[in-house]
Amino acid sequence: MPEKCATEVAATSISKQLIAAVGEAEVLQVARESRWLRRLRDITPLALVVACLSTLGSGRATWIADILRTFNAFTGLSIRYKPFHNQLRKAAFPEFMRRLLERMLEKMTRPVLSPGLGSKLGKFRDILLHDGSSFALKDALSKQWPGRFTKVSPAAVELHVTMSALDDNPIQITLAPDKEAERALGPKASDLRDCLLLEDRGYEHRQFFRDMQSAGGFFIVRGNKAIRPIVRKAHDLRGRRLRHLEGKLLSWEVLPSRSIDLAIEWGTGKETYHGRLVALYKRGRRNEKTFVYLHTNLERAEFPAPEIGRLYRLRWQIELLFKECKSHANLHRFDTEKSEIAEGLIWASMLVVVLKRGITHAAQFALGIELSTQRAASCAKHVLDDILRCLLTNVSELATVIRRACLFLGENSRRAHPARDRRRGRLSSGLIPLLAG
Description:
By secondary structure, the protein is an alpha+beta fold. The protein contains 14 helices and 11 strands.
């Protein structure tokens, strides 16, 4: 398909999806259902949403007045600060933004990566990444959002995100006080049948591992050296038994200076977990011996230890998502002591992240070029406002403007090292990008 035709088709498709997610009628309906809107005034739901997306998605913003100035610029009105602030401080404002985010995820998410032909990864329904990211709020919000570090950050919030590596987008987002335990806010084992879950060391928990095995799910979770399981079997990467380690409590100090693959028994009685622990050897910054410990229930014969390490690298994509949220979508502490405003703007930040990723993924597919969501997010100010202005005042031109945006992203957001991605990056595990043609 010629490039012009492909981009036109993609632009028409993405414009329809965008209207279905945050078109005027849809936003109005969500505003009423969430009870944010009682009657229409000068500050209309769509104009407010557009102002939030523009402000949070283009450049640094710290003050509520930044959003107000954007609102007045888009609408041509002269709304004063107090009535505008009163709309943001409504109790229903967070729910309004959260529901719009749900719609955006539903309408704008598409597959971006796929297991290669004949790849072992085809056995997984999805590859999920889960982690949390926290940041401080104004101290006055410590009652609603208590933080873990009460002296340094009395008020703090943590965003718990489950992300699909295949869709390159979040699929579930939970907001909680930073003080709450992480494990309880992760995905439930019962929902993960035939999925592969990748998590960091804060989610190491043997009961969860047992639940995953019972539910038919798969996992790779980073561990730490605080646990002392019994080693039942030990192999090096050549498959040779290391019998001197077997039948003993695991002691990290006596492990050989090479990667090993262990069958472990962790716990006692009915709580015992029988599983696999891969210890990947590496040299530390000061040349000291160190390991990366990965719990998994993937079979050793099908997924050798080096493949477990390559698969786990995919978890880095959720760290890049958090970086994008904080660097290019203003996910940070706003200067407000109103809990409703603080929470609502967090949802709005995630809303603009999903919007920019949706447009980037559509451009990548249509142009047949691998694009970087980080680069696309950083140059969004050159395309985002035109799209939002059309959404607000001239929907008939939306497809044309989105097509120009796709071409701009194709020229300015290409991945820097696609060959390196295949050797040791996100594609080294066997995934391939989905591109037109």
